[in-house]
Write a structure and sequence with these properties.
By secondary structure, this protein is of the alpha+beta class. It has 3 helices and 7 strands, in the order E-E-E-E-H-E-E-E-H-H. The chain is globular, with a radius of gyration of 14 Å. GO terms for molecular function: hydrolase activity.
Length: about 130
């Protein structure tokens, strides 16, 4: 359990397909249950951000990724989330742990999906919106 003012470290992975669509998952658990977000989750004890991104992406999407540069950080409630660019290097897209669905989304798709609060605004600030 974290101290009252301590934030829980989390990671997210920003992966795009050849068409420039962004990988999103439909969250199965809170926070954000029933909403679409980038794949990610908590950094476990003994993990660094790179290991956590690789694990979370595999668990939630079935894809193997190679994390790259830090795109940005956000604070959402008790979580501080570091989002990294990710190159897909293997696997088959499927919804896994903590995800009800997973799909590649174009910019036009974002308006039709129930997204986690602040996702579009944050991606826009980072210059990371899908094509």
């Amino acid at each position: 359990m974290t101290e009252r003012n301590e934030l829980t470290p989390c990671v997210g992975g920003l992966a795009y397909d050849a068409a420039g669509r962004l990988l999103l998952v439909l969250r199965a658990n809170d926070p954000g249950r029933g909403r679409w977000s980038v794949p990610g989750g908590r950094v476990e004890a003994g993990e660094d951000d790179t290991a956590a991104v690789i694990r979370e992406m595999r668990e939630e999407t079935g894809l193997a990724v190679e994390p790259g540069r830090l795109i940005g950080r956000v604070v959402r409630g008790p979580y501080t989330i570091a989002d990294y660019a990710c190159a897909v290097v293997g696997g088959t897209l499927r919804a896994g742990d903590d995800a009800l669905d997973a799909r590649w989304c174009a910019a036009a798709d974002l308006a039709a999906l129930p997204l986690v609060d602040g996702l579009v605004e944050t991606l826009a600030t980072w210059g990371a919106l899908p094509a």
